[in-house]
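The data are quoted verbatim for reference:
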Amino acid sequence: MEESLPKVRKTLYTVIIKRLLDIVLSGLAIIVLSPLFLIVIVLELIYHGWPVLFQQERPGLHGKIFKLYKFRSMTYETDENGQLLPGEVRLTKFGKFIRKYSIDELPELFSILRGHMSIIGPRPLLVKYLPLYTKRHMQRHEVRPGLACYSLKPLNSWSWYDQFENDIWYIENCSFLVDVKMIFVVLKEALYGSSYRIDDTREEFNGYNLFSDPKESAD
């Protein structure tokens, strides 16, 4: 049975207003949070050294590749063969702190300002996942990726299938009200912290593990 393809919602809000709000809100956030940026940069140099930013290519709107930047949460320690040590070994206490309160994501505000991302939208995942998506789930790239795209309904798990279907729901139902609700969830997580983000032990998407429970997965 052929899967149904979603239709991206096209309204005045999604086509014009959403982008304008992204520019205004990300610009204001960068100005207001500039002292925090400076503090984090200094602490990054102390705990992790140079460079202070982690960068990685990710697929954006229509699958176009852009560079995503985050504050580093790990060191670059290697073993005797020059191979990076496991992530759980390189993750520092400072790294755990900035992950818990999503401080590591702050550099993405510049990606929003430049138009590579949006405040709310499907998370930009790894480039190597691109050939693994179904045609339906590939449609998640028909809108700008975002800082977050939370489910507005309770879920027992957050499998890859749940995440991708939530992304599809978003592109079909995007509205000012939906974005406002999700922004409040983002702010709540930033204020109270997220323990899940500290370890982030979810297994990588391989095309076959759509329904695996992330609680049972490990890197």
